[in-house]
Amino acid sequence: MTDFQDSKKPDPFLEEGRLLFAGDCSFIKGAVKLDQLPDMAGVEIAFAGRSNVGKSSLVNGLTGRKTLAKVSNTPGRTQELNFFRIGSKLTLVDMPGYGFASAPEAKVRAWTKLVFEYLRGRPTLARVYVLIDGRHGLKTTDLPVLDMLDKAAVSYQIVLTKADKLKPGEHEERLAGVQDAIKKRPAAFPDVIFTSSEKGDGLPELKAAIARLIAERS
């Protein structure tokens, strides 16, 4: 466990999480319309975040596959709902980034509508992991997404990215600030996870959280 994670007893789901993401992993399909969504199966989780927050890097880091999700320096490159099958129990969805995107406004609105409709109408969706740049914490562009998730009663958990970019001692301050900001939000899961796709920090804890979620839904 990294020095910026809370000191706790060993999580029994750490090994289950490791095994979950060590198995088969494959791309199912990309969807730009609701009628293109794949059939629902098992537990489904989704990753949301501002453009260029590191969603694709995190998906690649979780699965240990460098090119499973495309990584780009161009914000807004992910323009569809990308579905991945992880083992036999989990479907992972990489959603289009919100906020700034290098695309026409009409297309950004279309992506946003697709995402919101997906979140409101997917019974197998167990949790949304909302990625926040750990260097900056929650920003005003994140709040409408959290508001929407609260209103739709979709469970979500904050995952702070780019932990390796912070100075020593800044992690606890950032964690405390985010936890305070979400404590009164009805659909927010209270635990916040700090991660670094580059260094691998926090990924075992995130895998364990996902494995625990699957066990709870089984």
TrEMBL record:
Q: Which GO terms describe its biological process?
A: division septum assembly
Kindly list the GO CC terms recorded for this protein. cytosol
**Superkingdom, taxonomy of origin:** Bacteria
Q: Which CDD domains match?
A: YihA_EngB
Recorded GO MF terms? GTP binding; metal ion binding
Q: Does the keyword ATP-binding apply?
A: no
CC cofactor: Mg(2+)
Q: Which residues form the EngB-type G domain?
A: 41-216
Q: Which SUPFAM superfamilies match?
A: P-loop containing nucleoside triphosphate hydrolases
Record-linked Pfam families: MMR_HSR1
Cite the entry's keywords alphabetically.
Answer: Cell cycle, Cell division, GTP-binding, Magnesium, Metal-binding, Nucleotide-binding, Septation
The record describes the protein's role as: Necessary for normal cell division and for the maintenance of normal septation.
Q: Name the protein family.
A: Belongs to the TRAFAC class TrmE-Era-EngA-EngB-Septin-like GTPase superfamily. EngB GTPase family.
Protein name as annotated = Probable GTP-binding protein EngB
